[in-house]
């Protein structure tokens, strides 16, 4: 599909799904990264003023917050900033301590999910998530954290296609080129943590081609994360 055609189709799809739900708009987290910038611009095109970008720093890099504000202002996306630092601190202070940084870091996307659903209910909006096909394929998201959403407009696009769409939408170049990161701890990057590059992952998803070792790793990650892409299991009786 041509980029313009794809953009229009996604905007129409968002409107249709929101209308079918009896809702009137969309709320989404604006992180300062490319995925949420694309989602924000698509939602603005679909719902005009009936959309809301939430900027929710939780000990996040201040540069990301600046980038999120820059996107919101450039595209006139209504936005609100909600700092989650103190609720995060309070929350971990009542939990058992652990050295497992992923377990602790996953609280951040889950606090954002709670905040997004609060504003969704307040405004009769749906929560629009930013997950793309590359992340979904290998389960690179927090279950019921950033994975908790009502609609995933980028869910059938690999990261490379999201970048193409971002260029078409005129997302600032430096945001398109930032190394993708979940921002859960200092220095984290998606590619380092996953142990594969988006180029390898996207190529495998689109063509089935990858060096054997990489293909096996992707298949393993896909199979281990199956539980994140389905509803919780229930007994068959
Ligand atoms: N077989 C199974 N059947 C049913 N449930 C199963 C299960 N295996 C684990 N689980 C459950 O899943 C939990 C583990 O999943 P989860 O809590 O998500 O934890 P986990 O997958 O370990 O961590 C999330 C990963 O996503 C990354 N991330 C997070 C947020 C945003 C982004 C991004 O770039 O956008 C990336 C993050 O850096 C980390 O590597 C277990 O604690 C367990 O409750
Ligand atoms: N500080 C934040 N404020 C608001 N929303 C956030 C923030 N951090 C993450 N999110 C939300 O969670 C989603 C997952 O973001 P994350 O930063 O983990 O990686 P990503 O998948 O590379 O997305 P992006 O390219 O938008 O940063 C974001 O797209 C955004 O919707």
TrEMBL record:
<feature type="binding site">
    <location>
        <position position="35"/>
    </location>
    <ligand>
        <name>Mg(2+)</name>
    </ligand>
</feature>
<feature type="binding site">
    <location>
        <position position="159"/>
    </location>
    <ligand>
        <name>ATP</name>
    </ligand>
</feature>
<dbReference type="GO" id="GO:0008795">
    <property type="term" value="F:NAD+ synthase activity"/>
</dbReference>
<dbReference type="InterPro" id="IPR022926">
    <property type="entry name" value="NH(3)-dep_NAD(+)_synth"/>
</dbReference>
<keyword id="KW-0479">Metal-binding</keyword>
<dbReference type="GO" id="GO:0003952">
    <property type="term" value="F:NAD+ synthase (glutamine-hydrolyzing) activity"/>
</dbReference>
<keyword id="KW-0067">ATP-binding</keyword>
<dbReference type="GO" id="GO:0004359">
    <property type="term" value="F:glutaminase activity"/>
</dbReference>
<comment type="similarity">
    <text>Belongs to the NAD synthetase family.</text>
</comment>
<feature type="binding site">
    <location>
        <position position="135"/>
    </location>
    <ligand>
        <name>Mg(2+)</name>
    </ligand>
</feature>
<keyword id="KW-0460">Magnesium</keyword>
<feature type="binding site">
    <location>
        <position position="150"/>
    </location>
    <ligand>
        <name>deamido-NAD(+)</name>
    </ligand>
</feature>
<feature type="binding site">
    <location>
        <position position="130"/>
    </location>
    <ligand>
        <name>ATP</name>
    </ligand>
</feature>
<dbReference type="GO" id="GO:0046872">
    <property type="term" value="F:metal ion binding"/>
</dbReference>
<keyword id="KW-0547">Nucleotide-binding</keyword>
<comment type="function">
    <text>Catalyzes the ATP-dependent amidation of deamido-NAD to form NAD. Uses ammonia as a nitrogen source.</text>
</comment>
<protein>
    <recommendedName>
        <fullName>NH(3)-dependent NAD(+) synthetase</fullName>
        <ecNumber>6.3.1.5</ecNumber>
    </recommendedName>
</protein>
<dbReference type="GO" id="GO:0009435">
    <property type="term" value="P:NAD+ biosynthetic process"/>
</dbReference>
<feature type="binding site" description="in other chain">
    <location>
        <begin position="227"/>
        <end position="228"/>
    </location>
    <ligand>
        <name>deamido-NAD(+)</name>
    </ligand>
</feature>
<keyword id="KW-0436">Ligase</keyword>
<feature type="binding site" description="in other chain">
    <location>
        <position position="143"/>
    </location>
    <ligand>
        <name>deamido-NAD(+)</name>
    </ligand>
</feature>
<feature type="binding site">
    <location>
        <position position="181"/>
    </location>
    <ligand>
        <name>ATP</name>
    </ligand>
</feature>
<feature type="domain" description="NAD/GMP synthase">
    <location>
        <begin position="7"/>
        <end position="232"/>
    </location>
</feature>
<comment type="subunit">
    <text>Homodimer.</text>
</comment>
<feature type="binding site" description="in other chain">
    <location>
        <position position="110"/>
    </location>
    <ligand>
        <name>deamido-NAD(+)</name>
    </ligand>
</feature>
<keyword id="KW-0520">NAD</keyword>
<dbReference type="InterPro" id="IPR022310">
    <property type="entry name" value="NAD/GMP_synthase"/>
</dbReference>
<dbReference type="GO" id="GO:0005524">
    <property type="term" value="F:ATP binding"/>
</dbReference>
<dbReference type="GO" id="GO:0005737">
    <property type="term" value="C:cytoplasm"/>
</dbReference>
<dbReference type="InterPro" id="IPR014729">
    <property type="entry name" value="Rossmann-like_a/b/a_fold"/>
</dbReference>
<dbReference type="Pfam" id="PF02540">
    <property type="entry name" value="NAD_synthase"/>
</dbReference>
<comment type="pathway">
    <text>Cofactor biosynthesis; NAD(+) biosynthesis; NAD(+) from deamido-NAD(+) (ammonia route): step 1/1.</text>
</comment>
<dbReference type="InterPro" id="IPR003694">
    <property type="entry name" value="NAD_synthase"/>
</dbReference>
<feature type="binding site">
    <location>
        <begin position="29"/>
        <end position="36"/>
    </location>
    <ligand>
        <name>ATP</name>
    </ligand>
</feature>
């Amino acid at each position: 599909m041509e980029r313009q055609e794809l953009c229009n189709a996604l905007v129409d799809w968002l409107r249709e799904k929101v209308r079918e739900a009896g809702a009137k708009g969309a709320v989404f987290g604006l992180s300062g990264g490319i995925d949420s910038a694309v989602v924000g611009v698509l939602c603005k095109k679909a719902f005009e003023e009936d959309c809301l970008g939430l900027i929710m720093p939780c000990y996040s890099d201040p540069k990301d917050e600046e980038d999120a504000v820059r996107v919101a202002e450039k595209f006139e996306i209504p936005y609100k900033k909600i700092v989650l630092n103190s609720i995060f601190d309070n929350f971990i202070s009542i939990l058992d301590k652990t050295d497992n940084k992923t377990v602790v870091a996953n609280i951040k996307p889950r606090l954002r999910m709670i905040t997004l659903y609060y504003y969704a209910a307040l405004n009769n909006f749906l929560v629009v998530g930013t997950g793309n096909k590359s992340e979904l394929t290998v389960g690179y998201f927090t279950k019921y954290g950033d994975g908790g959403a009502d609609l995933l407009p980028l869910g059938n696009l690999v990261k490379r296609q999201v970048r193409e769409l971002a260029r078409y939408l005129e997302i600032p170049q430096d945001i398109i080129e930032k190394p993708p990161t979940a921002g859960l701890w200092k220095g984290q990057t998606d590619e380092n943590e996953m142990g594969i590059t988006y180029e390898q992952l996207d190529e495998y998803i689109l063509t089935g081609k990858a060096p054997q070792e990489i293909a096996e790793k992707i298949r393993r990650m896909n199979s281990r994360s199956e539980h994140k892409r389905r509803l919780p299991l229930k007994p068959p009786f």
